[in-house]
Amino acid sequence: MGSRYTENDDRWYHGDSPSLDEPYDSHRTAGGEPLGAHMARDGDGCLEAGSDDDDGDGDDGEIDQASADVGATQKKRRKRNKKQSKKKSKANSPLQQSSPPRVPLEHIFPSGKYPECEAQEYQATARTTAAEARYDGRRYWEDDTFLNNYRKAAEVHRQTRRWVQETAKPGTTLQDIAVGIEDSVRALLDNAGLEPGDSLKSGMGFPTGLCLNNQVAHYTPNPGQKPVVLQQQDVLTVDFGVHINGWIVDSAFTMAFDPTYDNLLAAVKDATNTGIKTAGIDVRISDVSAAIQEVMESYEVEIGGKTYRVKPVRSLSGHNIQQYHIHGGKSIPFVKHRDQTKMEEGEVFAIETFGSTGRGYTVDDVGVYGYGLNDDAPLRAPVSLSSAKRLHKTIRENFGTLVFCRRYLERLGVDNYLAGMNCLIQNGVVEEYGPLMDIKGSYSAQFEHTFLLRETHKEIFSRGDDY
């Protein structure tokens, strides 16, 4: 590695530079002898202390004069170097304002940047505790990591559902479809979710929903059930979520193998897209609901020679999403209402619409869809049953407030959990969710997208070339 050479260096010696503040040492040998020292030697280079030179003409005075000249030269150079260093320090130091002030600010702040002034927070008022406080709580959307994770989860959803659309055919069991979806999501995320805490980092946002015909929502095949085989005349709705760090992409679509139901699917897809188009910052949710209802009820479908108007399902709604909470507190019904709640910047919404040829109301179906910890559940479950305590610990470590199903528990190796689960449900620690259906003989469809209300536009995370 070579030494850096600077043109301003005025080096009359070689080697390490002595400090300008320390006295000159004429006995330094590293890097050569001082200028003029050779004059203290006789002609053959040998020192002869206390003797005359060969000529005997008294050259000692000349030697003393030479040494004096050397010392004077060194003093001049030290003074000159000190002056130069003072000039450099003055040039590098910022200018100070004169008194009275006459130096232009551009000279004192050459960068053009002036010091930040004092910042004081607003005192708590109705304005700051409501709208501004909510906005500050949603500044996460400005984080590139948040956006990138949401986009990644959306891509996982698109690639997984593409596989479903290609492989879900008559003769396939719903169990195989559900397991295939969940295995695909975990593989694409590179997270098997088998260790405590892994499923909280990324994975399924909620149990895969696979609903047929009059089943409107929240049906999933459970272990031990009789296999349900997909038929040619079935209308299949697929609803699943992908999460990364608790932020869920919630998206759903409906498939039919008979063109008879095309208009039903078109009505619901159009209604969902209308809701998304209407949504925006400061838009009243009631306006979004009215637009959805108007579009959906404009469609009719003919089934078996009878014409049905497509009805919005009144007992279900879209919703906003919060971290680790699929339902964030705001609801978007599919029919007109008087709620004046507005959408706000930074909120994540899942606009989903359900259309039915039946009554447009749902009732509970038999079976269990899934479970979820109540938000206000204590860290220690107030139960005495040991199996319930162990199950509660497993739920907290693997799912938190995310909804899960029996398939997920058994995948972790949990067995004999039903008694403990019932105990947790009875004590209000866990909530149970069941399937929902319309009247028998009716058909329903669902389409859903997740989007973020950004400052200048909506970003529809789950949009793909399929819907």
UniProtKB/TrEMBL annotation:
Biased composition (Polar residues): 91-100
Record keywords, A-Z: Aminopeptidase, Cytoplasm, Hydrolase, Metal-binding, Protease
Catalytic reactions on record: Release of N-terminal amino acids, preferentially methionine, from peptides and arylamides
Cofactor note: Binds 2 divalent metal cations per subunit. Has a high-affinity and a low affinity metal-binding site. The true nature of the physiological cofactor is under debate. The enzyme is active with cobalt, zinc, manganese or divalent iron ions. Most likely, methionine aminopeptidases function as mononuclear Fe(2+)-metalloproteases under physiological conditions, and the catalytically relevant metal-binding site has been assigned to the histidine-containing high-affinity site.
Residues given in the record as a divalent metal cation 1 binding sites: D239, D250, E448
Peptidase M24 domain span: 149-370
Main localisation: cytoplasm
Start-end of Acidic residues biased regions: 50-63
Basic residues bias: start-end ranges: 74-90
E.C. code: 3.4.11.18
Single GO MF annotation: metalloaminopeptidase activity
Positions contributing to a divalent metal cation 2 binding: D250, H319, E352, E448
InterPro entries according to UniProt: Creatinase/aminopeptidase-like, Met_Aminopeptidase_Type2, Pept_M24, Pept_M24_MAP, Pept_M24A_MAP2, WH-like_DNA-bd_sf, WH_DNA-bd_sf
Localization per record: Cytoplasm
Cofactor requirements of the protein: Fe(2+); Co(2+); Zn(2+); Mn(2+)
Function (record text): Cotranslationally removes the N-terminal methionine from nascent proteins. The N-terminal methionine is often cleaved when the second residue in the primary sequence is small and uncharged (Met-Ala-, Cys, Gly, Pro, Ser, Thr, or Val).
Protein name according to UniProt: Methionine aminopeptidase 2
